[in-house]
From TrEMBL:
Pfam family, one: PLDc_N
Gene Ontology CC terms, in alphabetical order: plasma membrane
Protein name: PLDc_N domain-containing protein
Organism: Pontivivens ytuae
InterPro entries registered for this protein in UniProt: CLS_N
Length: 66
């Protein structure tokens, strides 16, 4: 029974992680930053998912509407 709960928790955390990465990529490509900066931020988020997301969230380009 413990394996089922472990799987459920890992599955939910994986879905949340995937949603955050997709949200970050959408916001990166909608930002007013230049093309090169967008590509670099996207690569950072894709190659280093958790750390890259956190760095982008706190230091990345802000959207034009904010």
């Amino acid at each position: 029974m413990g394996n089922v709960w472990s799987f459920i928790v890992e599955f939910i955390l994986g879905i949340i992680h995937l949603a955050l990465i997709i949200w970050a990529l959408i916001n990166i490509f909608q930002s007013p930053a230049g093309t090169g900066a967008k590509v670099l931020w996207a690569l950072l988020v894709i190659i280093f998912p958790i750390v890259g997301f956190l760095i982008w969230f706190f230091a990345g380009p802000k959207s034009a509407t904010a």
